[in-house]
Specification:
The complex is a heterotrimer of chains A (about 300), B (about 425) and C (about 270). Chain A has about 300 residues and is mostly helical. Chain A has 12 helices and no strands. Chain A is globular. Classes of the chains: A mainly alpha (about 300), B alpha/beta (about 425), C mainly alpha (about 270).
């Protein structure tokens, strides 16, 4: 089946237009990902650099070694803790903010929206440094405020029990504004008729919330929750800057662990396998979300 | 289109911008304070060598290990660098640095005998010298003279038994929150020093296996844990004590195993009337002073193979190794000089705090010279922390440490024992 | 009426407190950067400087070379933005409006790639750069941002809305495909281009892990990398570090406030498609 010359010109042009971006994405994204998988099946490390004949294929040895490494399980546990506690908190804060900002009674909507969103735009390293000082047990304002309320000072970043919650607070603070915007968009898409019908039926604010708003928002809820959780799986800068993974490895995240294995110890085979475990985690969560959505529709 | 190209062109020219091309430019990488200070020492060198310019780059200690390796792998390396001497084996395994034997032979001002024996040994792998010691570092006791005397010990302990007795005597003052000795749980030097003192090689069989299950290491490890379990040391990490100098002054702690930079820090951060209350002493050993060894630490100066100016690079090293430059460096940084004759100078000879260091430096032992050392050292305190703060029994922690280190060393074993040998030193 | 008033006040009090809480760390960051050395570490802690000083900013730009790092960030973020504008728009438009065999499958493959976290590619990408001699170059630092699946996706979704008649008419007039792209499509998709440019600039400016890995020479460090390095060495110098944070954060905050319309639209548009 031959095609009209115009169509052939279009197809040619399309490939020309696509070529630069595709070339870059293939060479600098897809190719490394595949290489990473291959790397995770070798024992590539410091000795291998410059001496390629030192590299051995070791199959799943790296993955089995991870399964036996206490630090891997710490990193996994910490990452899941961070994601599954932090994401719901961020979502709830975002929902609350969205409901408040979107209310018909609210004045200066633009100002409040900007204020809540501002943390998201800031450079993570910069604000992590600021928060690190805020958390200081002696000079930090947080413990000063607690002290004024009569509560004993806590060494947030030095206490294995509180370090991760402290980091969760920073992550929620940074992310809730972004999620708020998505909720606002979702709220504004709720058909007026539904709300008006509920009001006519005499439903109060709380009842409207429960029976109209929240059910309508459920897909948005799940979507926001999942993308926040996936983003949180990639936790790195906060522990790197604020705690170095400590105390007692309580804030060691998967990506930080991968960075240490790869760039501190140069055990690239091991690091690549950590990266793929992370990928598998993200994939599982994404698939679960897709399945859930398919069930809903 | 022209408007779009300009920024792109700008980017590419910025990539290619170079330093002025008159004469020779040597890149020198220094870490932390030493890097900052090195800059000040260059003008005199440049005056002596017209046409040579030294470009000093300072790398923070916190990221130095990864930065140096990443740079090397990325084909970016200096001509001369300061390397922590425990890192020298890594760079030898990479084939990154040049053997210095022939250069040393040609330079009468630098010989092995000019340096502390244990320190020089850290730069020697096989029979080849790869680095020249720049400054030395070790760990020993900083302690409260007055509190120790009050507890009935006018002289610092020299044996472990005396040490424990002294610590217990101090503890009997029984004030809450006070501990006789401060040992951060996330530092590798204290348990390693105790192991070296017990005669443990830490790794055995030419660095092929961990020796953590052997009696020497076990003895040291149990001793280390007992300090925490008997309430003699607090279960805290490095960053968990607010201001250690203040706490020392207040008497919260009476002893601390730390290094020479704290001589200057104590003098700067504590009041004048406190200065006669603290002192330094060599490490007590299991069986007496001679067994009180410590770490052969410090930094060495190395030349990278990729350097295009090895001659000038060596001249820089020679310059920094001169006794008067060593002394000047000590004045600027407080880092102890590596050349023994520099210690004759009055500024060091008359410094009571430095005497213990000189004595200790004659009794230092290198840590295992394997490229994996930094990682193994980190695991030592990781498992130590599990035993101290994580509720894991000592022998379990040691068994796990042994297993993990044996896994880490599997590569090394394979490379060393292959019939077809490569640079698996 | 009274209930209405009370609700109004309660609502705005809540909003105001939340805004204060959210902005507080940033406000303290600015306040602390103007304090004298040691003032931010005083006990009890202070909220405002007694005598505001710009000495820390002076130190940053002279002794500590922050001007250089700022310039590096501008080069890397700016370069990535400009290049991605061109590459992503061409690819996005092609996927939206040009007909060719395999278009649907290609798009599906790209979208599937969105699931892969960037960190999976990072380590091997470093090795690829090393093989190409691009470690420690501005180009190397920009590479992950020069063409992104997300950027292509954004533009493709928006470009789907371009009327086909517009393009058809231009073709009948004999215009080349490139001419159509450049003179007709680009002006029409300006809003999404602005959004994408802002996204790219912000995310590249703020990026930490990749420049940390890809840049080894401190002369090329971007602001976040340099800041993290300074934080390690100058942990005691609170005011200095806060000033460094201000220098890093202020440009992106200003860019965002000035252009927030585009940013917000982009986020909400992206979420609607889900």
């Amino acid at each position: 089946m031959s095609r009209a010359p115009g169509e052939r010109a279009q197809a040619r042009a399309a490939w020309v237009f696509l070529a630069p971006a595709l070339l870059l994405i293939t060479t600098f994204f897809f190719l490394p990902v595949v290489t990473g998988l291959a790397l995770s099946l070798t024992d590539f490390d410091l000795y291998s650099i410059g001496h390629p004949d030192n590299i051995r294929m070791v199959g799943t040895a790296n993955y089995r070694a991870l399964a036996q490494a206490p630090m891997f399980w710490s990193a996994l546990k910490n990452t899941l803790y961070f994601a599954f506690v932090g994401a719901p908190l961020s979502v709830l804060a975002a929902l609350a903010a969205a409901l408040l900002v979107n209310s018909r009674l609210t004045k200066w909507k633009g100002f409040f929206r900007t204020a809540y969103f501002a943390p998201f735009v800031t450079t993570l390293v910069a604000v992590a440094i600021v928060w690190k000082y805020l958390y200081h047990p002696r000079f930090g304002l947080l413990d000063a405020a607690l002290g004024a309320a009569g509560v004993h000072a806590i060494d947030w970043l030095g206490n294995p029990m509180w370090a991760m919650p402290a980091i969760i607070v920073v992550a929620v603070w940074r992310s809730f504004g972004y999620n708020m915007l998505i909720f606002i968009a979702g709220l504004q898409r709720i058909p007026h008729e539904l709300r008006e019908a509920a009001e006519l039926d005499g439903a109060g604010l709380w009842a409207r919330l429960r029976h109209v708003t929240l059910p309508q928002l459920t897909p948005t809820f799940v979507f926001v929750g999942v993308i926040t959780a996936i983003g949180f799986f990639q936790l790195f800068a906060e522990p790197y800057v604020m705690t170095g993974g400590g105390p007692l490895n309580s804030t060691l995240s998967m990506v930080l662990y991968m960075y240490q294995e790869g760039f501190r110890w140069w055990r690239l085979g091991s690091a690549a396998s950590i990266a793929f475990v992370l990928f598998a985690l993200v994939l599982v969560v994404t698939i679960l979300q897709l399945l859930w959505r398919r069930e809903e529709t | 289109m022209a408007v779009r190209i300009a920024p792109i062109a700008m980017i590419f020219t910025a990539c290619n911008a170079r330093a002025p091309t008159d004469g020779v430019v040597i890149d020198f990488w220094g870490m932390g304070r030493e890097g900052e200070v090195a800059q000040q020492m260059m003008p005199e060198f440049e005056a002596e060598h017209p046409g040579v310019h030294v470009h000093v780059q300072q790398i923070p200690w916190t990221a130095a290990h990864e930065k140096l390796l990443t740079a090397y792998v990325g084909h970016v390396s200096p001509d001369v660098a300061q390397l922590g001497n425990t890192w020298v084996p890594e760079y030898v395994a990479l084939g990154a640095i040049v053997p210095l034997d022939s250069l040393i032979k040609r330079t009468p001002s630098i010989t092995a005998n000019d340096y502390f024996e244990g320190i020089w040994a850290t730069n020697v792998l096989g029979d080849t010298v790869f680095g020249i010691p720049w400054y030395v570092d070790t760990r020993l006791l900083f302690y409260r003279k007055d509190l120790l005397a009050q507890a009935g010990f006018p002289a610092p302990p020299t044996t472990w038994a005396q040490w424990i007795a002294a610590l217990k005597a101090i503890k009997s003052r029984d004030e809450p929150g006070q501990y006789p000795i401060y040992i951060p749980t996330n530092e590798w030097p204290p348990p390693t020093i105790l192991a070296l003192e017990s005669g443990s090689p830490i790794l055995k069989d030419g660095g092929r296996y961990g020796a953590f299950d052997d009696s020497a290491f076990k003895t040291a490890f149990h001793f280390y844990l007992s300090l925490f379990q008997n309430g003699l040391a607090p279960k805290l990490g490095i960053n968990e004590v607010g201001n250690i100098y203040q706490e020392f002054e207040r008497g919260t702690y009476a002893m601390w195993i730390t290094g020479p930079w704290n001589i200057g820090e104590f003098r700067r951060r504590t009041p004048a009337d406190f200065q006669d209350k603290w002192a330094t002493a060599p490490m007590p050993g299991p069986t007496g002073a001679a067994s009180g060894v410590s770490l052969a630490g410090g930094s060495s100066l190395v030349i990278y193979k990729a350097s295009r100016h090895p001659r000038e690079a060596w001249e820089l090293i020679e310059y920094l190794s001169r006794p008067e430059q060593q002394l000047r460096f000590y004045d600027l940084t407080g880092d102890l000089p590596a050349r023994i004759e520099t210690w004759r100078d009055t500024s060091l000879a008359n410094d009571p705090a430095a005497h213990a260091f000189e004595e200790q430096l004659h009794r230092v032992v290198p840590t295992p010279q394997v490229p994996e050392w930094e990682l193994i050292a980190t695991r030592i305190f990781d498992y130590g922390e599990e035993a101290i703060r994580g509720g894991v029994p000592a022998d379990t922690a040691l068994a796990r440490l042994d297993t993990e280190v044996n896994n880490i060393l599997e590569r090394r074993r394979w490379l060393l024992d292959r019939p077809h040998r490569h640079e698996g030193r | 009426m009274k209930r209405h008033r009370a609700a109004l006040i309660a609502l705005h009090v809540a909003l105001g407190l939340a805004a204060l809480g959210t902005l507080f760390p940033l406000l303290w960051m600015v306040s602390g950067s103007l304090m004298a050395t040691g003032e931010a570490n005083s006990f009890p802690p202070r909220l405002f400087p007694a005598h505001p000083t710009l000495s820390h900013y002076a130190a940053l730009f002279t002794r500590l070379n922050v001007g250089r790092y700022f310039l590096n960030s501008v080069i890397v973020a700016g370069g990535a933005t400009v290049i991605s504008l061109l590459l992503n728009s061409m690819a996005g438009y092609a996927l939206a409006k040009l007909h060719f065999k395999g278009r649907a499958q290609l798009f599906r493959v790209l979208v599937a790639g969105l699931v892969i976290p960037a960190q999976v590619a990072m380590l091997p990408l470093f090795l690829v750069l090393q093989a190409m001699g691009l470690v420690n170059t501005y180009v190397g630092a920009m590479i992950p941002a020069m063409a992104t699946i997300f950027g292509i996706f954004l533009i493709r979704q928006y470009a789907m809305g371009i009327p086909d008649d517009l393009l058809g008419a231009a073709r009948m007039d004999g215009a080349s495909e490139f001419r159509i792209y450049w003179s007709i499509v680009m002006p029409v998709i300006k809003p999404i281009l602005a959004t994408m440019a802002l996204f790219t600039f912000l995310s590249t400016w703020n990026d930490f892990l990749w420049p940390l890995v890809a840049l080894t020479d401190d002369a090329k460090y971007t602001l976040p990398v340099a800041l993290a390095g300074l934080a390690g060495e100058h942990v005691q110098d609170t005011e200095l570090m806060l000033a460094g944070s201000v220098v890093t954060v202020v440009p992106v905050l200003l860019a965002f406030i000035a252009l927030q319309r585009f940013y917000v639209e982009g986020i909400t548009a992206g979420s609607v498609k889900q």
